[in-house]
UniProtKB/TrEMBL annotation:
GO BP annotations listed: ribosomal small subunit assembly; translation
Protein name from the UniProt record: Small ribosomal subunit protein uS19
The organism's place on the tree of life at top rank: Bacteria
Entry-linked InterPro entries: Ribosomal_uS19, Ribosomal_uS19_bac-type, Ribosomal_uS19_CS, Ribosomal_uS19_SF
Family: Belongs to the universal ribosomal protein uS19 family.
Biased composition annotated in UniProt, kind: Basic and acidic residues: 85-104
Role of this protein: Protein S19 forms a complex with S13 that binds strongly to the 16S ribosomal RNA.
Gene designation: rpsS
GO MF assignments: rRNA binding; structural constituent of ribosome
Swiss-Prot/TrEMBL keywords: Ribonucleoprotein, Ribosomal protein, RNA-binding, rRNA-binding
CC terms in the record's Gene Ontology section: cytoplasm; small ribosomal subunit
Alphabetized HAMAP family for the sequence: Ribosomal_uS19
Record organism: Candidatus Giovannonibacteria bacterium RIFCSPHIGHO2_02_FULL_46_20
Length: 104
């Protein structure tokens, strides 16, 4: 269910204060507020969004307006399926790529 239009988008008040104090391109703004909605005022800023372990750098562009900051900072690391057989296939692929590069 979407948020009511009369309430407006949620942006953490502390994050708004940090935005007003800094200029675009000045550095990374660290935030733990993954639930904050990206507004047009945030375009051009670089955010360090916490993923539970460390901060992931997110450069905000116009396409991101309306999304949440947390959408661009994944919290889970994908581990590939397969074991020994998968590693052998990957190794063969890297060797093949190395042999093709000098031929160009």
């Amino acid at each position: 269910m979407s948020r009511s239009l009369k309430k407006g988008h949620y942006i953490d008040p502390k994050l708004l204060k940090k935005l007003q104090r800094t200029k675009p391109g000045m550095g990374v703004i660290k935030t733990w507020s993954r639930r904050s909605t990206i507004s047009p005022e945030m375009v051009g800023f670089m955010f360090g969004v916490h993923n539970g372990k460390d901060f992931i750098s997110v450069q905000v562009s116009e396409d991101m307006v309306g999304h949440k900051l947390g959408e661009f900072s994944p919290t889970r690391k994908f581990t590939r399926h397969g074991g020994k057989m998968q590693r052998e296939l990957e190794q063969q692929a890297t060797e093949k790529a190395k042999t093709e590069k000098p031929a160009q």
